[in-house]
Design goal:
Length: about 450
């Protein structure tokens, strides 16, 4: 694999080829990845995967017209031809008055703190296999587990470089390690499935395989013999496994592209109280070892922590340079992109900060409720905020988690849900988007 300076220089060479071909401006990305994975099922090796990929992407502008081309070759001898092809495409493209590179005055220096995204540890296939086997064995050892969907373990390394014709050139290297298990509990006619998984930047931070497997087994067994609660209005708790999905709907509604197209139910919400007092939703791209940490965004702008919601008030949109031009604001440093794609706004490490009451106190605050641990379907209207999704979980009575529930639907409106939700104090930073247990005081619950 190339070094970071070599990858940055290679991206800069592609940009230079674009300028020589006649581009008014351009940016280029280099992506190199290497990954390995093993899966087992019922104690037998099921799949072994090892892959290496190389991708080169050039986005150039010819006046107000633009085009993007990609190649799987890192050979700089082909850059001139790639640039000529992109120029030919751009000449045929429609004009876009908002498109273009980020303002050079806003670009990062290309130098930043080490965010701890790369662990040089190489996990041999034998170690991955042992980890997957241990996870599945632990899951199958749980009473009530009758079958397995399998367990897997994997690792990988990525190198991504970005260079622009406005002088930015930087590369970052990252790693990941993962383990998961999925099992089935019960017998014919009364089966329930569940899983557990974990991913981390450093191998030392990965949950033990035995813990992941045990958790998967216990979750599946706990879902046996579900009941159907009566339909009607009911308090609903969102377990941390699913509470982050509400942040996903929030983010989709505050991206600059949705606001510019007027397709967001939060179109008029900027600067208003959207959540209850004290609620903070923070995006922190500089978290050490974070799964979505980054020092610069997909346009070369420096990344900084930002409270999108402060004391319940929506403070900012998430905007790329193109979004910002259309909205008449400054870009926010939230451009993300794949190697072969164009920038699109999105968060880094997003979290809803914990509240003052513990999970136990929150569960005990209502006499009867539903604790949702799984959501099914995508029933959310981004224009109106209407929310309706299939769900499964558990009854909560007197603060105690009781019988499993399945085949229910929960419905409401996201704007009302945001305004009334209360977070517990059990926030754990385990994913790219994290939230603690959340209480929504009233949703409509319907049994299938």
């Amino acid at each position: 694999m190339l070094s970071e300076p070599q990858a940055a220089d290679l991206a800069a060479a592609l940009v230079e080829a674009a300028r020589k071909a006649g581009a008014s401006s351009a940016d280029a990305m280099i992506g190199i990845s290497r990954s390995s994975g093993i899966s087992v099922r019922l104690g037998e090796l099921e799949d072994i995967d090892h892959s290496e990929s190389f991708e080169v992407s050039l986005r150039l502008f010819y006046g107000a017209r633009s085009a993007t081309v990609s190649s799987a070759s890192l050979d700089s001898a082909g850059f001139a031809e790639l640039a000529e092809r992109a120029i030919a495409m751009a000449r045929q493209a429609p004009e876009d008055p908002y498109a273009g590179l980020a303002d050079p005055a806003l670009l990062g220096s290309g130098v930043g703190d080490d965010l701890g995204l790369f662990d040089p540890t190489v996990a041999p296939l034998s170690d991955l296999e042992a980890r997957a086997r241990e996870a599945e064995q632990a899951a199958r050892a749980v009473a009530g587990v009758s079958n397995s969907n399998g367990a897997s373990a994997g690792s990988g390394q990525n190198l991504v470089a970005l260079a622009t014709s406005t002088g930015f050139a930087r590369a970052t290297r990252s790693s990941y390690f993962s383990c998961s298990a999925s099992v089935i509990a019960g017998d014919a006619g009364a089966l329930q499935r569940d899983y557990a998984s974990h991913s981390s930047r450093f191998l030392a931070d990965l949950d033990a395989a035995e813990e992941i497997g045990r958790k998967a087994g216990e979750r599946a067994a706990a879902r046996l013999n579900p009941v159907r609660p009566p339909s009607g209005a009911c308090p609903v708790f969102f377990d941390p496994r699913v509470s982050s999905s509400l942040l996903g709907h929030f983010v989709a509604a505050v991206t600059g592209s949705a606001i510019a197209r007027k397709t967001s139910f939060l179109q008029d919400a900027l600067g208003t109280r959207l959540f209850g007092p004290g609620i903070i939703i923070r995006d922190d791209p500089l978290r050490p070892r974070g799964l979505r940490s980054r020092a610069f965004d997909g346009e070369g702008l420096p990344c900084r922590p930002l409270d999108l919601v402060a004391d319940g008030v929506l403070t900012s949109w998430l905007a790329t340079s193109a979004d910002a031009r259309q909205l008449g604001i400054a870009p926010t440093g939230h451009a993300g992109r794949s190697v072969g794609g164009s920038p699109g706004a999105g968060p880094s490490n997003l979290m809803l900060l914990p509240g003052g009451r513990s999970r136990e106190e929150l569960l005990a605050s209502v006499p009867r409720a539903i604790l949702v641990t799984e959501l099914i379907g995508q029933g959310v209207n981004p224009v109106t905020g209407d929310y309706s999704r299939g769900a499964a979980g558990f009854l909560v009575e007197g603060g105690e988690i009781g019988a499993a529930v399945a085949e229910i639907t929960i419905a409401g409106n996201l704007r009302q849900m945001f305004a009334t939700l209360e977070p517990a104090s059990d926030l754990e930073l385990r994913r790219g988007i994290d939230a603690p247990t959340l209480l929504v005081p009233e949703l409509t619950v319907a049994s299938a």
